[in-house]
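Predict the assembly for these two chains.
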Amino acid sequence: MNIPYAPHPPLPAALIEDLAHRFTNRFSISQAVRDQHGRDESVHPAAAPDAVVFVETTKEVAEVNRLCSQHRVPVIPFGAGSSVEGHFLAIRGGVCIDLTRMNHIVAVHAEDLDATVQPGVTRKQLNAELHGTGLFFPIDPGADASLGGMAATRASGTNAVRYGTMRENVLGMTVVLADGRIIRTGGRAKKSSAGYDLTRLFIGSEGTLGIITELTVRLYPLPEAISSAVCTFPGVDAAVDTVIQTIQLGIPVARIELLDALTISAVNRYSKTTLTEAPTLFFEFHGSPSAVEEQAALVQEIAAGHGGMNFEWATRPEDRSRLWQARHDAYFACLQLRPGSRAFPTDVCVPISRLAECIRATNEDIARCPIPVPLFGHVGDGNFHLVVLIDPDNPQEVAEAERINHAVVKRALAMEGTCTGEHGIGIGKQKFLVDEHGEAAVDVMRALKRALDPDNLLNPGKILS
Amino acid sequence: MNIPYAPHPPLPAALIEDLAHRFTNRFSISQAVRDQHGRDESVHPAAAPDAVVFVETTKEVAEVNRLCSQHRVPVIPFGAGSSVEGHFLAIRGGVCIDLTRMNHIVAVHAEDLDATVQPGVTRKQLNAELHGTGLFFPIDPGADASLGGMAATRASGTNAVRYGTMRENVLGMTVVLADGRIIRTGGRAKKSSAGYDLTRLFIGSEGTLGIITELTVRLYPLPEAISSAVCTFPGVDAAVDTVIQTIQLGIPVARIELLDALTISAVNRYSKTTLTEAPTLFFEFHGSPSAVEEQAALVQEIAAGHGGMNFEWATRPEDRSRLWQARHDAYFACLQLRPGSRAFPTDVCVPISRLAECIRATNEDIARCPIPVPLFGHVGDGNFHLVVLIDPDNPQEVAEAERINHAVVKRALAMEGTCTGEHGIGIGKQKFLVDEHGEAAVDVMRALKRALDPDNLLNPGKILS
């Protein structure tokens, strides 16, 4: 798979001794703990770190970085482990910094619509803790990912069409650099023109420029009214055309998701739903009761114009939760379409005007493929996913998945899109980085990496090889 | 004023010859042309470049950069010249690249809600060209600034509370690096997780990391209904409390601007308006007719609760334009409060919960100051401006302005705010950069600068000294 796994020397005994002495039972070199930190949700071959430290403070992260830097040993941050592009696989060995114990909510500033959290806080945990404040945090990449990991991969999800991605929703962060220096990027002001945008530099840097140990995120008032609906279409084209028209008219839908017939059948089986097995859009509208009603009526009219049928509304909170849980479980539902398979996921994003054409051509690739390939995604942003369900031990199937991935990425790039809308580069998409940005821009990325991590110790081999 | 103006050698004759040969009558060393490019809207002492090149293409910018880089001569980009922090003053000499002839709209993708423009296109020009498409570009920093300059300073303005700043509204850019390499950052996809966020790195970098020669910006459907209003208050506090409550309730106002009584009196004189000379909020609501009506009713109720009086509506487009033109002319109106004075402007931004306290304390500074100091701003974002109207030849007045600037910035930073919400660092705010970000974060900025411009030739002495 052309992945830059590289042989590496064992950890220096002096480093093991220092870390064990400092972190006692929060330091582990047991095979079980290492293995648990060396395999992600995708088909990328496992690569366990040489040791794991369970840190509890920013200062501890700084200590680990400093020690590892003295010994020229890689460090790899670990959050919820929900990456699908091999982000935390220790392909050059090194010490894994497990941030899951840094899971405290430092402050909720309800009056300023922001919260400061440690990186191990997950999106569901944050929203649970916000219960009763009248506020919520909208970004939801399906998995119950950690906020640190979500910032590091510039994650988004179903609400991004209305609320933006992690790029738009982090005000500032605490970051530990390769050499252990601690910096704060950004304050709590909603906007600033004070110097280089370090916050955005670290968002999406996948742990290769610094380790995020605290972040201040934007919150939003819970909408007065919420209403969700599903609607089936005679074909994927008709569904996508509905999305395009909705976005072009500027209707502020909160969510607008496409699931193809295969994905719906997987969802029905996995989540015990009884959705019609046809191309389907999931909608959600947020606002005042009258605004929600107005938006819903407009979208219903657009959908009808494209043959949309069976508009079914979920207005009770429990029905809405059930619907969206089913949507979020689509990835795992798809895996069950072929028991024993692993997912080879890919994720591209194109300008909305090219979305129908892109999905249509991709469906031709899928039709020619002997393996099941469900298609679904955040089509309001022009972003969709394929999940190629392969037997990872069958080289022909791996090659077939690579072929489809290549085809869909090439197509997206030719349409001025991107090779990944929200999964990140990790190790899986490095081969497309120059195609997308050009050699000179990737050289700039390399220069930034060298400037901040001259010894290439922070999550080496990710984004840039 | 502690500004890093530095003596510098004259331009090498060989460089002058090369540039004159290459650019003929688009190259100038005339004193008049140089002077015109060496003085901004603020009190910063003029500093003319040694030469000016009027470029027409990205390739020409690359040629100038390459030639200047060979001779180790600074290059300074110039847009509309509307900076108030000395951004384009040639404090280390060098060649000014005038981008005003690069004022073509390259493409409008109405169906994707984006447009690609050259950097010399101004915001008014873009909106004029969008006439008839049903779309508009919302960012409006008062002055009819160029979009390249707006990106370079991370500009925002009155609509930012609803539509965000340049940070949120640029999809991608073409940038020429110090050595003449041309890169493209970002595509046209609405979101991407493909590598480091080079777009955001150059936004707000004030010409110190690269020169922006093309940018793709987001457009928005013109709201179906727009309505504007002014409302006066018994005091600044009452007005600010109205703003805070509006924002905390999540009412999606498009604009919510504060002008103090002194500013209103200046506006009345300059723009021949007849506004009540009291603390005043200017509002604008965008949406469907019913949404606008609903938002306006809510805000009117909030304002009434704080003693807001004389809610006056401007629904006809010409009345609205007149109102907002008056708002945008506030800066120039203020200058006329004291004929012959120059403006010492400052601009801070704080979390909205601290805004009332910040403005109250600042008003105490103003009350103690013998010079007129109008206060106004984009309070929906927690951002406000002071314009200290000084005689620049009177050292005591300059010192007084410095004192007020210091006090308000220190106060904003103590409140987790920023020393500049939208004007940028330029030369005027460098002294606050470490106070705001800390030495280690500013060191990271220095490392980025060295990585991309090792010879310190791109707009040297700005942001970082």
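Chain A touches chain B through 88 residues (CB under 8 Å). Chain A has a mean pLDDT of 95.
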